[in-house]
Amino acid sequence: MRRPMTCAWLIGTVLMSGAHGAQPAHAPSVETLLETGTTVLDQALTYPDGRARITAQRLRFPPGTRTPVHRHATPMFAYVLEGEFVVDYGTRGERTYRRGDAIVEALDWPHQGRNAGPGPVEILVVYAGADGVTNTVIADAASAATAVTAVD
Asked: How far apart are CA 60 and CA 150, in angstroms?
């Protein structure tokens, strides 16, 4: 009985073939952006109960834009595509994320992000959530007045 070829096996075979000779310019490559079991605040990752729901968004922040104060109820991976973004974690300090940075954002910890640079910021975010669980919870209605836009 012949088994179907898996993607991981195929990529591994192609990558290993480069060890024996020159790898063609068109060969696929793998770059691990992040591998972790904790958030940026060293919290252990936990997942919500329920049927799994992955949500991927591309966020765009014009210069001077802030997020509302918020927290994430589900694990959220973020990859900065463009610009520089500063996140204030209150008593845990501020952190600056730049193009090419990959993180797992804090869980259930209030924080606020801002575009502190002269140009736009774009961030790819991927939530590992569940049906019926809100990925992002806004701290209060007053801070919700600031703009955060998803890019179509």
From this structure: 6
| 22-80: pLDDT as tens digits | 666 788 999 999 999 999 999 999 999 999 999 999 999 999 999 999 999 999 999 99
Based on the domain organization, do 26 and 79 belong to the same domain? no
Per-residue model confidence as pLDDT tens digits over 78-123: 999 999 999 999 999 999 999 999 999 999 999 999 999 999 999 9
The SS3 of residue 100 is coil
Q: Are residues 67 and 9 in the same domain?
A: no
